[in-house]
Design brief:
The protein is an alpha+beta fold and 75 residues long. Helix content is 29%, strand content 23%. The protein has helices at 2-16, 26-32, and strands spanning 34-35, 40-43, 50-55, 61-65. Keywords: Antibiotic, Antimicrobial, Defensin, Disulfide bond, Secreted, Signal.
């Protein structure tokens, strides 16, 4: 009975705590927004020294530095 009361008190206290608005940690966000074996970054537009090779989703490009792109042979 005491554990049930404790769980209810914790749930009530957690409902009173405001949500965090700062977003995820920068390292976690960078890890999940990477592509191309963590060599590229998912962005809406690529920089001048970057080129998009694949798509991350329907709205983002996988921007990769040109030195990490695979070498193309033939035509």
């Amino acid at each position: 009975m005491k554990s049930l009361l404790f769980v209810l008190v914790v749930l009530v206290l957690l409902s009173c705590v405001p949500p965090v608005r700062s977003g995820p940690n920068i390292y976690i966000r960078r890890l999940f927004s990477t592509c191309w074996r963590t060599k590229g970054v998912c962005k809406t537009s690529c920089g001048k020294s970057e080129i998009h090779h694949i798509f991350c989703d329907s709205a983002h490009l996988c921007c990769i530095d040109k030195k990490y792109l695979p070498v193309e042979f033939g035509k």
